[in-house]
Amino acid sequence: MPQNVPSFEELMEAAQHSAVHLEMRDQYAVGDEVDDFNMWLNTGHRDLDPASQYWTPWVDLISRAVARGVVVRRARVVSEPVTDYIRYEHAGTVVNIVAGEQVRWLPRPRAVDLMLPGADLWIFDGTQVLFNHFTGVGEWADPPLELRSEPGIVKQCSDAFEAVWERAVPHEIYEIR
């Protein structure tokens, strides 16, 4: 693995055709979401303004990618009943969609016969896999990212994502349980 992994933003800016994201954890504790998550826990209200300081960097990045023809898809494998964190993600997904993402949800029991990677990931243009490593409590691990481009690994991860995507329920009709 190379020592200098490009940033996620650099990889997204370089994408030409596709960027797909597979999320499989039921809980994350990533620092940049802590305040927003705690506000949602305490009030039930989530920042849903695509132009807010919280969302603008993401919305701009994804919107630029989509404008240049990149198809951005996100699939989430979730346990049911869902955790508070998944409820929080579900509440904010409308902004992902406004930015141009397609989002689907797959209840974990419907994924039991799929061979899934051991970490969340992004696949860019079907040629690079960016693994996202987290600790057991959902914080970024050290190192947090691992970029791989071996054709066998890319194919396995792409096949796994497509299998999840095929079974998953579009956000617009997925009901939180």
Topology:
Elements: H1 8-14, E1 18-23, H2 34-43, H3 56-67, E2 71-78, H4 84-99, E3 102-107, E4 120-124, E5 128-134, E6 140-148, H5 151-167, E7 169-170
Parallel strand pairs: 1-2, 2-3
Antiparallel strand pairs: 1-4, 3-7, 4-5, 5-6
Helix pairs in contact: 3-4
Organism: Streptomyces griseofuscus
Domain DUF6879: 7-174
Protein name: DUF6879 domain-containing protein
Q: Compute the gyration radius: what is it?
A: 16 Å
Please give the count of helices: 5
Distance from first to last alpha carbon: 40 Å
CATH superfamily: Endonuclease Chain A
Number of strands: 7
Query: Which fold name fills CATH's third level, the topology?
Result: Endonuclease, Chain A
Largest sheet: 7 strands, mixed
The total tally of domains equals 1
Mean residue pLDDT:
95
Shape: globular
Question: Which regions have little confidence, pLDDT < 50, spanning 5+ residues?
Answer: none
User: Which band does the percent of strand residues land in?
Assistant: 15-25%
What is the highest CATH level, the class?
A: Alpha Beta
Structural class: alpha/beta
> What is the share of helical residues?
25-40%
CATH architecture: 2-Layer Sandwich
Sheet with the most strands: spatial strand order: 6-5-4-1-2-3-7
**What are the secondary-structure elements, in order, as H or E?**
HEHHEHEEEEHE
Protein name: DUF6879 domain-containing protein
Pfam families: DUF6879
Organism: Streptomyces griseofuscus
